[in-house]
Amino acid sequence: MTPFRSVALVARREFVTKVRTRSFVIGTAVIIAVLAGYVLLQAALFSHGQHAVVGLSGQAVQLADPLRDKAKALGIDVETRDVTTDQNAEGQVRSGDLDALVTGAPPALRMIVKDEVDEALRNVVDDVLRQQVIVAQLAEAGLNPQVVAQDLQKVRVTVTSLEPVDPRRVERLAVGLVVAALLYYSLIVYGTMVAQGVVEEKSSRVVEILLATLRPWQLLLGKVLGLGAVGLLQLLIISGTGLVLSSASGVLDIGSMGGSAIANGVLWYLLGFFLYATVFAAAASLVSRQEELQSVLTPISMTIIIAFVLGINLMIQDATGTAVTLLSMLPPFAPILMPGRMAMGVAPTWQVLVAIVLALGAIVAITWLGGKVYSNAVLRVGSRVKLRDALKA
Fold first, then answer.
1. Which run of H or E residues covers position 197?
2. How far is CA 118 from CA 52, 55, 115, 121, 211, in A?
3. How far is 300 from 27, CA to CA, in rounded Å?
4. What share of the chain is helix, strand, coil (3-state, %, to 5)?
5. 20, 218, 240, 371: least CB-packed within 10 angstroms?
6. 53: part of which helix (H) or strand (E)?
7. Strand order in the sheet with 100-103
8. pLDDT tens digits, one per residue of 340-386
9. What mean pLDDT comes out for the span 62-79?
10. DSSP letters spanning 349-393
């Protein structure tokens, strides 16, 4: 067989075997279900947070129009109900039919809530109350409240923005964090899967049969390509489903940003997987039992975990900061940080190109080094092979 056909056969076997397993199907379904539940929860919280039902009793009924107008100006949908004749108004608050009950007359209004007051709603009621008190005092002083209100409307502070405001910053941040989380999951899960496959073949001596017809680099490359394709398929399914759910529920107005985020995610998944998968395989070839696998994988897994945790915190604080900018261009961190910054629109083209070039260079170096370790250690069973010995052999 030609080298290409040998690699293709190994890759096909790994891909078909893993895709047909129940763990892949169930795992993908569980992740999608969790994602759907989270999106629906966010949609419910968002809807609830933007809508409030307020009961008005007695003289507070006259505040209905000002209350709705003020809330609308602040982006909150307030529905008012006259509950003056309702003897069980407080019961409606307890049952959740009313978010709040406002009684009394300015300036001594009372707002009754079930437990914790919504600060946005409280601010709306406070502003309306202050407005009513000011109107009353102006009338007592012989001034026309409407004229004063018109004069106040003309008073505005002049704002100068040094940089243009991105109206979709929140959506970009959300997409960036989700992309980083999905890449973190894929690198950890499928990198570990490559390592487990290497140890399984080594401990069962199957690798000796395979290497009778294949070269070590062909077996390693085929395994990496096959399992990488499985991870890519799952990544596309999950990310595509997530984008559809987010757009349909109204949690995020993604638009064309979703397509570019998926494309960037695919690019950096491929770079990250080839960067780490060879390292996972080489590390796994040093041991002969599954029980010993975790000890050699911990340093690699910790690098990915640190990149994810550190990157998420830095991106939330300031995605354009010096620290996150430098880290996002370095190969160990780039596959997780750079696609997130690209989704947020804060990564200039030159930074992306530098990160890609460095990642490709690292892949070449690590593939050569990891392939050497794998070739020299995969047939050595028994005690754990020292890295120094694997490099010298």
1. helix 169-203
2. 9, 15, 9, 5, 67
3. 23
4. 75, 5, 25
5. 20
6. strand 51-56
7. 77-82, 51-56, 100-103, 110-112
8. 788 777 888 999 999 999 999 988 888 888 888 888 777 777 677 77
9. 79
10. HHHHHHHHHHHHHHHHHHHHHHHHHHHHHTT--SSPPPHHHHHH-
Q: How many CA atoms lie within 13 A of 124 on its CB side?
A: 31
pLDDT digits (tens, 9 = 90+) for 224-241: 888 889 888 988 888 788
160: left (phi over 0), alpha (psi -120 to 50) or beta: beta
Cα–Cα distance, 309 to 105 (Å, whole number): 52
Sequence-distant (6+) residues with CB within 8 A of 66 are: 128, 131, 132
User: Using CA atoms, how far apart are residues 56 and 61, in angstroms rounded to an integer?
Assistant: 5
β-pairing verdict for 77-82 and 110-112? unpaired
Are 202 and 381 within 8 A, CB to CB? yes
Separation CA 329–CA 308 (nearest Å): 14
| Closest to 337 (Cα-Cα) out of 171, 174, 183 | 183
Inter-axis angle of helices 349-377 and 322-329, nearest 10: 50
Distance CA(342)–CA(352), nearest Å, equals 8
The answer to whether the beta carbons of residues 343 and 255 sit under 8 Å apart is no
Residue tagged 């996150």 (tokens): 324
State the DSSP code for 51.
E
CB 369 within 8 A of CB 208: no
Q: Six-digit token pair at 25?
A: 């199907």
Rounded Cα distance, 33 and 310, in Å: 27
What the block records as the tokens of 162 is: 């040094």
| Residue 112 phi, psi (nearest 5) | -105, 125
Partner residues linked to 340 by β-bridges: none
| Cα gap 168→175, rounded to integer Å | 11
Q: Which two tokens stand for residue 126?
A: 């406070």
